[in-house]
Amino acid sequence: MSTLSQVYTQHPLKVHYIIPLDFDSVVTVPDSHAWPISDGFESNDWLSIPTIDLKDPDAVKLIALLSSNYQKLKALRSPGGATGYGLARISSFFNKFMWHEGFTIMGSPLDHAKELWPNDYQKFWQVHALPCTRNDDIMEDGQKKMEELATTLMHKILEYLAVSEEEMKWLGSPEVASTALQLNSYPLCPDPNRAMGLAPHTDTSLFTILHQRISGLQIFKEGVGWGLVHPITGALVVNVGDLLHILSNARFPSVLHRVVMKETKQRFSVAFFYSPPVDFNLAPLGLSSGQIPLYHSVSVAEYVGRKAKDLNKALASIRI
Ligand SMILES: O=C(O)CCC(=O)C(=O)O
Ligand SMILES: [Fe+2]
Question: Which residues does the UniProt record annotate as the domain Fe2OG dioxygenase (predicted)?
Answer without folding.
Answer: 176-276
